[in-house]
UniProtKB/TrEMBL annotation, chain A:
InterPro entries: UCP030820. Pfam families: DUF934. The lineage of its organism: Bacteria, Pseudomonadati, Pseudomonadota, Alphaproteobacteria, Acetobacterales. This is DUF934 domain-containing protein. It comes from Commensalibacter oyaizuii.
UniProtKB/TrEMBL annotation, chain B:
Gene3D superfamilies: 3.90.480.20, Sulfite Reductase Hemoprotein, domain 1 (3.30.413.10), Sulfite Reductase Hemoprotein,Domain 2 (3.90.480.10). This is Nitrite/sulfite reductase. Signal peptide: none annotated. It comes from the Bacteria. Residues 67-125, 362-413 form the Nitrite/Sulfite reductase ferredoxin-like domain. Keywords: 4Fe-4S, Heme, Iron, Iron-sulfur, Metal-binding, Oxidoreductase. It is an enzyme of class 1 (oxidoreductase). Residues 134-286, 425-563 form the Nitrite/sulphite reductase 4Fe-4S domain. InterPro entries: NIR_SIR_4Fe-4S, NiRdtase/SiRdtase_haem-b_fer, Nit/Sulf_reduc_fer-like_dom_sf, NO2/SO3_Rdtase_4Fe4S_dom, NO2/SO3_Rdtase_4Fe4S_sf. Its EC number is 1.8.7.1. GO terms for molecular function: sulfite reductase (ferredoxin) activity.
Amino acid sequence: MPLLKNGEIISDPWTLIEGELPNPLSPNTIVPFASLSEMDIDAASQPLGVLFPCDQDIDALKPFLSKLALIALNFPAFKDGRAFSQARKIREQLKFTGELRATGRMLSDQYQFLIRTGFTTVALPETANIHSWQQAMNDFTEAYQPSILNEKRLSGLRWKV
Amino acid sequence: MNNHPTSSPTSLAVGRYNYDQLDHNFLKERINQFRSQIQRRLSGELSEDEFKPLRLMNGVYLQLHSYMLRVAIPYGILSSTMLRGLAYVSQYYDRGYGHFTTRQNIQFHWTKLEEVPDILTHLASVEMHALQTSGNCIRNITSDEFAGLAEDEILDPRIYAEVMRQWSTLHPEFTFLPRKFKIAISGSSNDRVAACFYDIGILTRLNEQNKPVFEVWVGGGLGRIPYQGKVIRDDLPPEHLLAYIEAIIRVYNLHGIRNNLYKARIKILVENLGIDAYREQVEKEFASMDLDQYRLSDDIMSQIQKRFGRPTLADYPNASATLENQRKQDKAFDRWVKNNTHPHFHKDYIAAVIALKEVGKTPGDITTEQMYALADLADQFAFGEIRVTHLQNVVLGHIRKDQLYALWQELKKYKLATPNIGLITDIVCCPGMDYCALANARSIPVAKQIAALFEDIELQEKIGPINIGVDGCINSCAHHHIMNIGVLGVDKKGEEFYQIKLGGSSYKEGASIGSILGASVTADEAIAAVKKLIDFYLEQRQDNEHFIDTYRRLGTAPFKEIVYATA
C-alpha cells in the first residue's frame, strides 16, 4: 500500500496487525484499538501505533497517548468525514505530535483537507492515481480557515496554505 | 456594526462583500479544480459515485431532463453587475430564464455539464459562484431581505453571514458531513429568516448591558420529519460566533447518524440526545477550543466590513409628501405601495418588494429580459443593489420615496408590478416533477391553478395575509410544513396525489408545523379544497382575523369537514 507524505511516496516502516497479536510484539506495529486496551502497554515494544475507529471518542486514547508514536484513523467511505474532526481533536486537544495516518477510502480532492486537519501520512489504495494526489496538494494556495499548521494569516479570514 | 457606518468607499457595489485579489484567486483555483474533476470523471479515474458529491459541491445536479446549476446568492444580495452576469448565463447557457429558490439561490435548469466550467468562469468574473449550493456541507448562508435597512435591526447580519460564508468555504473538517447543513441569520430579534426551522438559526438581541448578542437555535428543519429547533445559547457574544458554530458542527460531524439518509440531519441528533445533553457536549467542545484563534476581532470585522459598499443616503424632506400625493392620485399605485413596500430606517427611503408571482407564471421564475431590466432599474433607483427573498421574490432596498412612482411605472412594463406580496397568489413553489429528479408529483401547475382561482386582486385583499406552499416531494423546498396552507405532492402507485396541511407558520413568534388535514386527493380536488378552505374562512372569520388565526381558533375539525364532506 503506497504511503504518501508531503506529496511524496515513502517507504512504510509500519505493519498493521489485525487479529491475534504476536508475543512479543515487534517495534513499528500498528494494533487495533480494541487490542490496545487489552494488552500490557508498558511491556509493548516501542514505537507503537494504533488504528482507532471512527465511531469512538478520541478521549479513549488518553491513557495510551505517551506510548504511541502513530495514530491511524479510518475513512470507511470518502463521504464519511468523521476522521477529519477526530484528527483535529487529537492534534488540538490531546496535543499529539506523532504521525497521524489516514487510512481507508479517500479521494485525492481531500488531500489538502487531510493535511489541514492534522494528518501527516496517507495510506493510499493500490489503485490510487498518485499523480492526482500529488497535484491535489497544490490545488489551493489560500484558505478561509485557520488550520493546525498555524499558517500565515494573509488578511481578514484568509490564510496562506 | 450598526446600520449607519460610512467607512466603506461608495465606489464598491453596495450591500455586499466585494472581492479582492485573494478572493478572485481562490475562485480561479476552485474552478480549475472542478475542471480537472470533470476530466477525471470522463477518463474513468472517478466513478459516478465518487464524482457525484464533488459536482454537487459545485452546485451541479442531474435533474430529470438535464444538468441543473444552482448558483449561490450569499445573504440574498446581488449587485446590478452580478444580475447582468446571471442574465447572461440564462441567455447563452440556458433557456432564457432562471428560478429563484427559498434559500436565496438561483437555479438554471437546462445547462450542459461540459459547459459548467465556462459558466463558473463567467460567474467568477462577476464575483459569483456555485460553491456548496448542494452536497453534505455547509450550504449558502441566508439572511433576510431587509438586512441592513430594517428599522428594527441591531446589527447588520450580512457582515456575519459573509464571515460564515468565507469560513465555511471548503472547510477542511466540515465538507463531508452526515448531511447538508443550513444556516440563517437575522440582525434583529424579529425573526424574518425562519430561524427555528434551520440546522442553525441565529437571531440578534441586546443584552442587559445593551450589547448585541446572538440567540442561537439548533436542530430545526423540514423535510420528511419536520422539527422546530431549540435554543442552544441565547447570549453568544458575536466575537465567538465561529468558535461556537464550529463546536456545534463538530459534535454533529462526530455523532450524527450516517447509515440512514433520512435520520442524518442534526435535528435527529438533537432530538435523540435532547437539547440539554447536546448543549453540554457543545459547551465542552467550545471550552476546549483556542478561542483567540477564532475570535472575530474588531480588526478582522472591519477588514471584511470595509469591502461592503453602502449607499450614501441623503435627506429629501419632501419625499414622503410627494409619495402620499401620488398614492392619492393613482389607485393602482397606492395598492402596490400598500402591499409591496417595507419601511426603511431612513425616513425618506423605502424598500420595494417586486413580486415574481404574476398569476399564470411559475413562482420564482425570472426571464433574461426581466433580469437585465431589473439590473438597469437598480442602477437608476436603488444604488445598483438587488435582494432576493426566501419567498421567491426580489427587493430593491433603498428607493427614494419621491422616485417610487417612476420605478413602479417602469416595473409595469416588464410585468414586475404585481401587487400581491403576502397575499394568496404569492405562492411559494418548488420545481416539482417538471424538473426535479426527486419529485413525486408536479407542483408548478397546481400552484398556477390555485393562483388563477384568486386572480381578482380585490378578493386577494379581502382574504388578507396568508401563505401557501406547494411541494412536489417531502424534501419541502417550498416549506409546505410551515405555510398556513401546505400542499404536498405524493406518489401513489405511479399516480400523483396531494396531501393538504393546515396551520403552519414560519417565524419564531407563533411558529408551528402544519397538521395533515386528511387523506391525499387528486390535483383537481386539492385545488378545489383550497377554494373551499378559503370560502369557509371568509364565512367564519371574526373582524379582520387572518386565516391562521381563524384556523387556530376553530381547530382542524371544521376545516376537515368542509374539504372532505362532499369529496
